[in-house]
Amino acid sequence: MLLALDVGNTNVTVGVFEGSRLIDHRRLRTVREQTSDEWGILLRNLFGLAALDTADVDGIIIASVVPPLDASLAEMSERYFRAYPVFVNHETDTGLSIRIDHPQELGADRLVNSVAAFHRYGGPCVVVDLGTAITFDTVSAAGEYLGGVIAAGVGISTEALFSKTARLPYVDFKQPSNIIGKNTVASMQSGLYYGALGAIDGIIERLIGELGPETVVIATGGQASLMARNSRYLKHLDEHLTLEGLQLIWRRIHSR
């Protein structure tokens, strides 16, 4: 079995693969202060809940954008799974050519998403990941990672609106029943939802204009399904895109 970890700023997504099949997945909070033993006990308990045996894990691959956690996760992997993990970075053999100014700056999650999207949908393609930040990553028809766009995520925008104003409350992010809000909360929800939607569709429209009309757009991340309801361009939803990309990279590395 393969254990795949997508370590983001807000959540850690855990996936377990048997061959190429995702047999279990969980979402945990990212706790930067958590020790290797705490991670190990937590993952061991999750395996128990899924009726899986940690002894069956023969590989671990990690995409991390939280460097302070990397040492703890590496130690956890060796101590609790007796496996040294592969940390994906710009030097990993992913099959994509990286065509940006400073490849070392590319987030592992963005690279992994691009690998999975190109494998499944071909190119040119755009991956929109709606997480703590909203990222747009582009891959050419020739399998070249071309770069992308990084915008503030919905949670960041919500927090900023609440913390930088004296009288506006913190609100849940959801699609309002009407674009014209009849009270403060509804007005804020409308602005947050349709503001994000307009920004996402506007950026995608410009990317398609540069890449060509045959460009495929894939959405992933926690807010993807909510935003796709009214988007003109978010037509392909892929909840497990990052985990699938990690599995593909692992197979590529170990098929040589």
What do these coordinates show?
- The chain is an alpha/beta fold and 256 residues long.
- The protein has two domains: 2-87, Nucleotidyltransferase, domain 5 (2-Layer Sandwich); 97-246, ATPase, nucleotide binding domain (Nucleotidyltransferase, domain 5, 2-Layer Sandwich), CATH 3.30.420.40.
- It is 39% helix and 24% strand.
- The chain has helices spanning 36-49, 67-81, 108-121, 154-163, 184-211, 224-228, 241-253, and strands spanning 2-7, 11-18, 21-29, 59-64, 86-87, 97-98, 125-130, 133-139, 144-152, 216-220, 236-237.
- The chain has a six-stranded mixed beta sheet, with helices on both faces. The protein has a five-stranded mixed beta sheet with strand order 3-2-1-4-5, sandwiched between helices.
- The longest helix is centred in the C-terminal third of the chain and has 28 residues, at 184-211.
- It is globular.
- The two termini are 19 Å apart.
- The relative contact order is 0.15.
- The mean pLDDT is 93.
As for the CATH topology of the largest domain, it is Nucleotidyltransferase, domain 5
Helical content class: 25-40%
- Percent of residues in beta strands? 15-25%
Reading side by side through the largest sheet, how are the strands ordered? Answer: 6-9-8-7-10-11
Count of distinct structural domains: 2
Shape: globular
Q: What's the CATH class label of the largest domain?
A: Alpha Beta
The CATH architecture of the largest domain: 2-Layer Sandwich
How far the N terminus sits from the C terminus, by CA atoms, comes to 19 Å
The CATH superfamily of the largest domain turns out to be: ATPase, nucleotide binding domain
Report the sheet with the most strands, covering strand number, pairing sense and barrel closure: 6 strands, mixed
* Unreliable parts: none
Structural class: alpha/beta
Report the strand count.
Answer: 11
Write down the overall mean pLDDT.
93
**Total number of helical segments?**
7
